[in-house]
Amino acid sequence: MKALVVDDSRSMRTIVSRILRGVGVEEIVQAENGQEAIQVLETGGIPDIALVDWHMPIMNGYEFVCAARKVPEWRPMTIMMVTTENEHGQIVKALAAGATEYLIKPFTPDALVDKLSLLGLNPLTGALS
Amino acid sequence: MSAVATDFSYLQQLVLNRSAIVLSDDKEYLVESRLSPIARELGLEGVDAVLERLRLTRERALEDRVVEAMTTNETLWFRDVHPFNALRRTVFPEIIARRAPYRQLAVWSAASSSGQELYSITMLLAESFPQVMDWHLSLHGTDLSSEMVNKARAGKYTTLEINRGLPATMMVRNFDRDGSNYVLKDEVRRMTTFRQMNLAEPWPTLPKYDLILIRNVLIYFDLPTRKKILESAARCLDPNGYLFIGSSETMMGVTDVFEAATADGATFYRLKGKQ
After folding, report:
1. Neighbours of B217 (CB within 10 A)
2. Bridge partners of residue A4, in order along the sequence
3. Partner-chain contact B160 A117, CB within 8 Å
4. B165 touches chain A (CB under 8 A)
5. A-contacting residues of B 78-117, CB under 8 Å?
6. What global pTM score does this model have?
7. What is the ipTM of this complex?
8. Chain A contact set for B169 (CB, 8 A)
9. For the packed helices B60-71 and B47-57, what is the interaxial angle rounded to 10 degrees?
């Protein structure tokens, strides 16, 4: 399974990547903002899941979701927002734009694993069903 | 009896020293429920006795257990996923078809903790089986700890708690934000009833339930008590009802009044001869 971690905080990218590796995700690509994530998708192939912060410079996470969902070939990609943004209206907006799931910071490693289970992540194979 | 404030300060310091986790003052309500199983296992009077022993002996192994108990949080929404898939796809469709002429449905979450299990079921019913919303629904939760019962009744959760296994779509539909907390909408809360009950003591008169969940609590009791609890549950289960225990718990060697069935990756139990 391949994952894309998009966050302007290097320490947050490291934390999320470590949790993903812990549940068997083998290939993890990182990007610092939405625009860099789009470049990754254009050049590096589509990950099974993208974990995306909201508030980032250049292109934010919401703009990334909107842009990514316009490309039919990228539709199978699961997108989970991982962000401090906790306004109900904003969460609804992200889900309506095509985010699959939403995790509010701060979170514990277990909370991320729970959300991956909800999405059908098989911890043994690291594959999304 | 709840741990007194000085005991909680001592616990906060211990947890901080050993795990670097800050146990905020609002977590005091967790002391009783998290440390009572340790007291029972060690044959001590209660939580206060555990803390006294810690202070006097500074036993490393006991410190480890107490710190772990105070810092892990296994109370989550839709815990273990599979049982809820089975409820949605197999169990509730069968119960609801059978109960349709009477338009009533009874569910009991027997170790309801801070309410997530019963509220998960309530939200699942509202979302997947809207036709039962005007039935006579008895959605009951009981817990040993009155602090937990009060927390469940309040339906108020922190971000850390709301993040544990609750799908975002259900969160926005069923909760209102209150500062950094999330509060269940009244229409969901009003469908449920929570009260204090000790499963190990004689049970009050209970109705016949279509579904009983006694999950992740049997581990805290000795074998004769587990047998007594499960056989009491059998008596208040509808003859065609369903019982769920924790995914790491077993009936084997405890009682033979139930037989196991599986669906959607989950194991559940029915009264013998009723499958």
Report:
1. 21
2. A29, A50
3. no
4. yes
5. 78, 81
6. 0.81
7. 0.87
8. 95
9. 140
